[in-house]
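Question: Send over one sample?
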Amino acid sequence: MPLVRLMLFPVLLVALLAPYGRAQMPSAPMNPMPLPLPGRPWPSLAGARVIEVSGNSEVQAAPDLATLEIAIETHAASADQAAGLNGALAEKVRQALTSKLADKGTMWTGGYSLFPEYTEHHDGEPTLSGYRAENSITVQTSELGLVGPLIDAAIGAGANRISALRYTLREDSKARSEAIAKAAHDAQAQASALANALNLKLGPVIKASTESEVRPVPLARFATSAMAANVQTPISAGQVTVPATVSLIYAIE
């Protein structure tokens, strides 16, 4: 919900009490608070009459970059056996991905881990049952139509987990600027409506700030049953959301 906050300080209260027997203090004309010079802090708002508003907006954009994380997991009785099995399987998956990807993207090792596994007993004493090795391969491509075939190639070569699929924007400055502009207009409209409702006159903007963070297409996870049934994995990219929040503080004339 947009934030709208009105702050009227005691100087207004003195003026309201005058008709009831108190001497009315002369009021000096309000000078608009100047904007700070580059590199200088914003002026203090202590004692100022201000209206503070917060506007929100978001822009939807078609993604142009896909990042796929593929995991290869193996188990064995000893550490060297688990590592050896994993290395051979990971190389097979990497070759399948390279053949499918060609020169339409990049690929790298996202992570590697090797650790012991234990079995819990009724007496509470765990015993070593073997070792697990995990190897993660990350693929990034701007050819969004390749995502489904890459998943199928990885699973067909022995990958046993598709950990993540994210769609993002390679360059989001245009969508970000549009979202900020819309959020600023929202904030301005709220300030005008509030001032009109309270019979006040807005002065200049004495402080402005913005926040913007791209939201990638939500995480997608996939099972390995599609390859077992010789069915191609259907993949459809959604929209990337670029939100923005603009906060404005107006002086009241």
